[in-house]
Amino acid sequence: MKLLKLLTLLSLLLSSYAYSADETVYGKVVYAGTYGNGDVYVDIEAIINEPGCVGTRLDVSSQNPNIKNILPIAYMAMATGQNISVRTQGCYAGSPTLDNSRGSWFYLIHK
User: Fold this and answer.
1) Helix (H, G, I), strand (E, B), or coil: what is residue 82?
2) At residue 108, what are phi and psi to the nearest 5 degrees?
3) pTM of the predicted protein model
4) In the chain, what are the domain boundaries?
């Protein structure tokens, strides 16, 4: 019985680790814009599987040091029809977001 409880606990821990694993997403930008407070949003035609805020929309705080780079990349992707690559770290305003680490990114994939 103790072995069964131990195995169950171990499988739960491993499955939660797999769910929170980083995932790079590729897709086309559907729309992008900014709020009055400077926050930026980008919607792509792919699911961003960030634990706690799965969705197709990326929201980035105006406090992020790369905020000025995100909209030009998104607009270039929209204008050229090129795909983007995104990896998020965490949630912001209920959507996946980029943090200040090298573990998250948003870039244009050159054809």
Assistant:
1) coil
2) -85, 135
3) 0.78
4) 23-108
List of residues 6+ apart from 79 with CB closer than 8 A: none
pLDDT tens column, 69-94: 999 999 999 999 999 999 999 999 99
The answer to whether the CB of 60 falls within 8 A of the CB of 43 is no
In sequence order, what are the beta bridge partners of 55? 48
Q: Exposed/middle/buried for 1, CB within 10 Å: 0-12, 13-18, 19+?
A: exposed
| Phi then psi dihedrals of residue 5, to 5 deg | -65, -40
- Tens-digit pLDDT profile for residues 21-74: 468 999 999 999 999 999 999 999 999 999 999 999 999 999 999 999 999 999
- The CATH code for residues 23-108 is 2.40.50.70
Task: Give the angle subtended at the CA of 77 by the CAs of 75 and 82, to the nearest 5°.
Answer: 165
Which helix H or strand E contains 60, and what residues bound it? Answer: strand 55-60
